[in-house]
Automatic annotation (TrEMBL):
GO terms for molecular function: acyltransferase activity, transferring groups other than amino-acyl groups. It holds the Pfam family Acetyltransf_1. The lineage of its organism: Bacteria, Bacillati, Bacillota, Bacilli, Bacillales. SUPFAM superfamilies: Acyl-CoA N-acyltransferases (Nat). It comes from Aquibacillus halophilus. Signal peptide: none annotated. PANTHER family: GNAT-FAMILY ACETYLTRANSFERASE, SPERMIDINE N(1)-ACETYLTRANSFERASE. PROSITE patterns: GNAT. InterPro entries: Acyl_CoA_acyltransferase (IPR016181), GNAT_dom (IPR000182). This is GNAT family N-acetyltransferase.
C-alpha cells in the first residue's frame, strides 16, 4: 500500500514521510546497516541479517502491492534518515493485524521522526480496517515505550531474558499492541 507524502518541520529540521519506492533500495540497505550499529534497541548487530539493494527492492515492490503492508521512509536533506514497516499476515485468522517496526539514524533522534512514522502507520491501519498493530520493544528503550503508550499501545506480554546485549546481561522484550474496534 502507499500513502500520500507528508511534510514535517520539527526543531528546525524539515523532513518528509512518504512511501518507499524502488530507487530507495540502495540507501535503505545502508541506513539499516548503520542503524543496527548505532543502538542495541534492535534485534540485529551491525551486518547481521543484511538486506542488500535487491532484497529491499523486493520488499518495497511487495509492500506497495499488498493491501495490509506499508513501507515508509523519512527523508531529510534529500537523505533517508529513517524508515518503518507494517507487515500484515496472509493467513485469514490473522489478517486483521499488522506488525510494526521502526529505525531512525541516531543523529536524527529527537526530531519526531519515529513519532511521525508511527502516526502515519496508525492512520494507515485505522483507515484500512486493520484491527490490531503489534510490536516488540526492548525493556530498556523507555522513550519508545512511552511513545507507544501515548499512541494507544498497551503491554500484552513480556519475553523474559529474550536478548543478550554487549554487557553480557539478559534483557526482556516487551510485546505491545494497539487495538482499533
Amino acid at each position: 500500500m502507499r500513502i500520500k507524502q507528508k511534510d514535517f518541520y520539527v526543531n528546525g529540521l524539515s523532513y518528509i514521510v512518504r512511501s518507499a519506492v524502488e530507487k530507495d533500495a540502495i540507501n535503505l540497505s545502508k541506513v539499516r546497516l548503520q542503524v543496527d550499529g548505532e543502538t542495541e534497541n534492535l534485534d540485529r548487530e551491525k551486518g547481521e541479517a543484511y538486506i542488500d539493494e535487491s532484497g529491499f527492492k523486493q520488499l518495497i515492490k511487495e509492500d506497495s502491492e499488498i493491501h495490509n503492508n506499508l513501507f515508509l521512509v523519512a527523508e531529510a536533506n534529500e537523505k533517508i534518515v529513517g524508515f518503518s514497516r507494517c507487515e500484515g499476515n496472509k493467513l485469514k485468522r490473522m489478517s486483521h493485524k499488522i506488525e510494526f517496526g521502526i529505525c531512525v539514524l541516531k543523529e536524527y533522534w529527537g526530531n519526531g521522526i519515529g513519532k511521525n512514522l508511527l502516526k502515519e502507520s496508525i492512520n494507515f491501519a485505522d483507515s484500512n480496517g486493520i484491527k490490531k498493530i503489534t510490536l516488540k520493544v526492548l525493556e530498556t528503550n523507555i522513550q519508545a515505550i512511552k511513545l507507544y503508550e501515548e499512541n494507544g499501545f498497551e503491554v500484552e506480554g513480556i519475553l523474559k531474558r529474550d536478548k543478550i546485549l554487549s554487557d553480557g546481561n539478559f534483557y526482556n522484550t516487551i510485546l505491545m499492541g494497539r487495538f482499533n474496534g
